[in-house]
Amino acid sequence: MSWDSETWKQAARDYHADRPKLVARDGNRVVNGSDPLHDVPPAEDPDDFGYAAPKPDGNAGMLDSKKASAYAIRGINWFWPGRFALGKLGLIGGLPDKGKGLISADIIARSTTAAEWPCNEGKAPLGNVIWFTAEDDIEDTVIPRLVAAGADLDRVEIVGMAKNADGTPRMFNLATDLPLLRGKIDEVGKVALVIIDPVSAYLGVGKVNNSSTTDVRAVLAPLTKLAEEKKISIIGIMKPVDPIEGMLISQIVAANEAALEFYRRGWTNTKAGYFDAGTKYLQLADKSSRTVALLTERLDQHRGRGQQQITVKHVTVNADQAVVTDQIVSGRRRETIATKSLTAGTDKPMDIIEPKQNEAMPVEGGGSKPK
Questions:
Q1: Which of 37, 57, 178, 199 would suit a FRET pair with 338, their CA atoms being 20 to 30 Å apart?
Q2: Rounded to the nearest 10 degrees, how much is the dihedral formed by the CA atoms of 367, 332, 239, 285?
Q3: Cβ 129 vs Cβ 156: under 8 Å
Q4: What stretches of 259-322 adopt beta strand conformation (E)?
């Protein structure tokens, strides 16, 4: 069939006749003075444009939103100025046995006695404290730390286990038990601070992947809303699972801070007319950002240890239905260690070193273990 046949000509005429309807139905532009978002009725007949308009699901819920003009501007109310705010969620991160518990006890002591913060950073607001502590023994570790720090023990509520309706104990779960925490805050009264140590212990067994940023954020978002609702400070204690993860996380934080500072200097110099300096800083910011992405990828790979990646190539099936593979490659876990800082003379992200398969890794308590 030739392109100038009557059939092709008729198809072209049909296309150009239907095209305005399709454009209007698509809702992307105004056609012949009509507003496609309001004037063009939805297609109810599947034959109209080839499909029927989707009907809203009554059980889908709705988005909660307000106009920006409905919100009032307000300042930040600080629990510890410049560090932890009332109505906000803060995090303290660090390797095991590096003082996170001691810092928590000191913060609690200052809050329960309205003591001064270090470095002339103001005075702690007086209030009660709720402390979730899952790893340290209460009587031989937690209480001695509070006493040594000078805390008012009558103002500290230490949470042990949650209880089911039948009275059986279980771990508190941040994903499902926030109403219990809200009730405890109301019961204690005049609460200024809640500390959750560590957050990973209260994510629920098999409920949340604590190595997944998306999963953890989904749990922490309602916790942040609770802090805002009760106008209290909530501090979560975070720790990596091993020294390699801790090092990668610290590198990510450092590279991210460097990127933000380089962007700030780049924009400031560019606006001031120093275009060469501005360009230099923006290039460094780009390198820092790519380093963050690279280290994040390596962190994800490290957290996925124990998971073997199998690549199978050239698969054939014999007449007797037996599967024959020509090549099988089993991927091993790869540890990557960020070792060098950014330099202005390189166009690549931060250099990394990949240890050999049997290279020893440091472990807590001294010694080493093979991968």
A1: 199
A2: 110
A3: yes
A4: 309-317
The candidate with the shortest Cα–Cα distance to 235, out of 80, 109, 40, is: 80
The residues, any chain, with a CB within 8 Å of residue 53's CB and separated by 6 or more, are 42, 43, 44
Is the CB of residue 196 less than 8 Å from the CB of residue 234? Answer: yes
Q: 213 versus 52: which is more confidently predicted?
A: 213
Which residue, chain included where needed, has tokens 């790979």? 301
Q: Rounded distance, CA 90 to CA 220, Å? A: 10
Nearest to 240 by CA among 223, 227, 252, 224: 252
In DSSP terms, 238 is beta-bridged to 93
Q: Does residue 323 surpass a pLDDT of 90?
A: no
Residue showing tokens 């200097």: 265
Alpha helices per DSSP H over 233-319: 243-271, 275-303
User: At residue 153, what are phi and psi to the nearest 5 degrees?
Assistant: -65, -25
Mean pLDDT score across all residues of the chain: 76
The DSSP output letter for 154 is: G
Six token digits for residue 24: 């209007």
Instruction: Tell me the HSE value of 355 on the side-chain side, using a 13 A CA sphere.
Output: 18
Residue with tokens 């103001």: 122
DSSP string, 39-86: TSPPP-SHHHHSSPPPPPPTTS-------GGGSPP--PPEEETTTEET
Chain-centre distance for alpha carbon 119: 31
Beta-sheet pairing, 360-362 with 89-93:
unpaired
Closest CA to 234 of 205, 256, 202: 202
Q: How would residue 343 be classed by pLDDT, with cut points 50, 70 and 90?
A: very low
Q: Are 230 and 191 in contact (CB under 8 A)?
A: yes
CB atoms within 10 A of CB 296: 17
Question: Residue 140 and residue 219: Cα distance in Å, rounded?
Answer: 31
Instruction: State yes or no: pLDDT of 337 exceeds 50.
Output: no
Cβ count near 251 (within 10 Å): 23
Using the 8-state DSSP alphabet, how is residue 5 labeled? S
